[in-house]
Amino acid sequence: MAILKIARMGHPVLAKQAEPVANPVATGIRQLIASMIETMIDANGAGLAAPQVHVPLRLVVFQAAEKRADKGLSEAERYDHTAPLTVLINPEVEIVGTEVEGGWEGCLSVPGLRGYVERPAHILYRGFDREGQLVERTARGFHARVVQHECDHLDGILYPSRMRDLSKLIFDSESHRWADKEEE
Ligand code: NI
């Protein structure tokens, strides 16, 4: 395992389409996953996509911790809003319904900034875990947001290009001036 260097906005690896992983349980993929998790935790990120560590493959890691879930949800509702540390290889995302939700996002490849992004509020996603087992879940709230954000990286998309209002692209150091800034 190793802490990997994170590519920053402007590096071509972040702008291109990533390739499918041929064998999710290959030794090299296992090592990459272990290092990506270590890198994500070290950088205090909620998610990380392989292109962000200069590897153009369709692989993401993320977590949607309980503390990020909206307050006041029932236990059943929370299920969709949280996710343990998850590895997704060759992921697919389907939008469920038409509801759109705005939230603040940050990105380890766009350090020091955050932006307000509107995305589908409810999704279904699937992919393979590091044992090669199929993972299939529905997601809402921050959980749905982080999965969409990470999977966008696999298609060369960074969150600023999802923004409708660039006046809400701000420095972290100014975010305390905004009331609804808790997501990242
Ligand atoms: Ni990102």
Could you explain the architecture of this structure?
The chain is an alpha+beta fold and 184 residues long. It has a single domain, classed as Peptide Deformylase. It has 3 helices and 8 strands, in the order αββαβββββαβ. β4 (100-105) and β5 form a beta hairpin. The two termini are 26 Å apart. The mean pLDDT is 93. Residues 107-109, 149, 153 line the site of nickel (II) ion (NI).
Layout of helices and strands:
Elements: H1 27-42, E1 47-49, E2 59-64, H2 75-81, E3 83-95, E4 100-105, E5 113-120, E6 122-128, E7 134-140, H3 141-154, E8 169-171
Antiparallel strand pairs: 1-2, 2-3, 3-6, 4-5, 5-8, 6-7
The chain binds nickel (II) ion.
Nickel (II) ion (NI) binds at residues 107-109, 149, 153.
CATH architecture title? Alpha-Beta Complex
Number of DSSP helical runs: 3
- What hetero molecules are in the model? nickel (II) ion
CATH superfamily: Peptide deformylase
The whole-angstrom Rg is 16 Å
* Distance from first to last alpha carbon: 26 Å
Summarize the structure.
This protein has 184 residues and is of the alpha+beta class. The chain has helices at 27-42, 75-81, 141-154; strands at residues 47-49, 59-64, 83-95, 100-105, 113-120, 122-128, 134-140, 169-171.
Question: What descriptive keywords fit this protein?
Answer:
single chain; 184 residues; Peptide Deformylase; five-stranded antiparallel beta sheet; 20% helix
